[in-house]
Amino acid sequence: MAVPKLKKITRREIGQNVWLGVEDENLTSSFKPRPLEYEVLTSEDAVGDAMLAELEDVARKKEGDITFILLGGRGAQALHKKLGALAETNKIDELLARLHVFTQDSLAPMRMNNSFSFVRDFERLLGEDFFRKIKSFTPMQTESDNLEADMIGYAEKIEALGGIDIFFLGLGPEADANSHLCYIKPFSGASISDYVGVIPISESILDHHISKFKAGGAEGNAADEAECRQAKYILTLAPLAILSAKRVVQSIVDASTAPAKVASFRKIIETDLSTDKNELARQIDENPGLLIRLHPNYRTLILPDVLQSTDNS
Predict the structure, then answer these.
(1) Is residue 3 part of a domain?
(2) Using N-to-C axis directions, what is the helix angle for 77-87 and 44-61, rounded to 10°?
(3) What is the mean pLDDT of the chain?
(4) Nearest CA to 234 among 292, 177, 183, 299?
């Protein structure tokens, strides 16, 4: 689906959450609920291989540049390590030279060089050669004086490049077995017409963010962690960004270190999605992880512990 033109950005304030997107009451009817299909792979390395194959498949099928949304945290670290190693050779230079790379969420305000920022983690895993060889890298600006204006510009830059070609996505656990995608929180009022958001942060998100970075090997000092815990906002891509991406590849590889994902994943599988647009909107607001079940061209990759733990719970 093409992104509706962002020439007239709508601003919706739901509580303390600010959502920026388009005004189109018919968007919800453009997406049809479907069962979640998923693939169980044997290892995180195998998930990384599958993700790399997806990126290479886009490159084969499309001419010209590729707009690529990076996944932060644990879900794509195997992919990032593979891309970093390949970038040290000339094996995928042609592919790298076509990539416009964007991030999908961030914490703000926070120094861009904080070791708990996604940008630093990307640099650690992907390496200097990757960033030197790609066509462009556009992270969300976390030191901005006007977060909303910068996020509008972020969305407009993606649109100007022709929209998102491949969106790598994870899954974050929430209370009551709900879940978030990007950092679209339950009951935050995000709608299918929203492209980006600036939302207040919670202590639970900060705890999850820091713990998953530590589990993934990030070496943050006490000062960086303290600054991270002072962040007040989350900058995030929103439902329309996910649903309008040409291809979405979801990976869930860390149920062993984030066991709440077990129940969250089960709820995504088992929820009976409504065909009534108002009820569907309510379900998505309650559990944004369900958005994956509205996308017409996605792939979900998991490790066995997500299902084994579910069966035993």
Answers:
(1) no
(2) 60
(3) 91
(4) 183
Give backbone dihedrals phi and psi of 166, rounded to 5 degrees, phi first: -145, 130
CB 105 within 8 A of CB 202: no
Closest alpha carbon to 223 in 66, 95, 111: 111
Is residue 189 a contact partner of residue 15, using CB atoms and an 8 Å limit?
A: yes
Give CA angle at 71 (65, 284), nearest 5°.
105
CATH of the domain at 123: 3.40.50.1360
Report the alpha-carbon distance of residue 133 to residue 115 in Å, rounded. Answer: 23
What's the pLDDT tens digit per position in 209-259? Answer: 787 777 666 677 889 999 999 999 999 999 999 999 999 999 999 998 889
Range of the domain at 59: 10-312
In a domain, 130, yes or no: yes
Would you say residue 4 lies in a domain? Answer: no
pTM above 0.90, yes or no: yes
> How many structural domains comprise the chain?
1
